[in-house]
């Protein structure tokens, strides 16, 4: 299985809602990532997890809260978002963080709209 | 912040022609990767070239890397309509495997 899956595919939420994005991989990868991508822009890194521990937080606002319950799962909890947070949220995984060859495998993304 | 800048921003070619896009970056890197993205979907990894490599091939793809000029190019030969997508370069550093993406090149291959 060389897939990264993400649910839901689409999410519409109000600014007072609490929702979660889910990401799963069964490739035995120990590093997982969240990216945010606005329309016609490149992906921007948000968080990196390595061996289920948060390794990098790119100064993301606290209304985004990542969680890695186990090595196959990565969640992104959303609360009190703003309309400008509307974007495509991409999850990725790689074997680990070290070494010169660590391609990242991306999921299809969750398209989030905040009303 | 963006590390790489891609050129051109958009490219329109006929099926069968070659497509070339360039990526420039600013700081030292461990590797440089190219990804393809179809219409707001996930990214597909195409090829990784390490900082000590100069050229790499994969099928119809050819990537070059010039670390002295801090630039890379991606050549797609004999393009097909299915190659229509956005192509991103991404520079990787060993610490944290953090990828920083360039602005992307939108390629349209007309049948």
Task: Throw out a few tags for this protein.
heterodimer; A: 115 residues; 4-stranded antiparallel β-sheet; 11 strands; B: 111 residues; mainly beta; 6-stranded mixed β-sheet; 5-stranded antiparallel β-sheet
> Biggest interface, which chains?
A-B, 32 and 27 residues
Number of helical stretches of at least 4 residues of chain A: 0
H/E series of chain A, N to C? EEEEEEEEEEE
Distance between the termini of chain B: 36 Å
Q: Which shape of chain A, going by the Cα principal axes?
A: globular
Shape of chain B: globular
Question: Which regions of chain A contain 5 or more consecutive residues with pLDDT less than 50?
Answer: none
> What is the tally of helical segments of chain B?
0
Strand count, sense and barrel status of the largest sheet of chain B are: 6 strands, mixed
**Structural class by secondary-structure content of chain B:** mainly beta
N-to-C terminal Cα separation of chain A, in Å? 36 Å
Find the count of extended strands of chain A (DSSP E, 2+ residues).
Answer: 11
Approximately how much beta-strand content do the residues of chain B carry? over 45%
Outline the low-pLDDT stretches of chain B.
none
Q: What is the strand tally of chain B?
A: 11
Order of helices and strands of chain B: EEEEEEEEEEE
Could you give a short account of the major beta sheet of chain A? 7 strands, mixed
> Structural class of chain A, please?
mainly beta
What is the gyration radius of chain A calculated from CA atoms? 13 Å
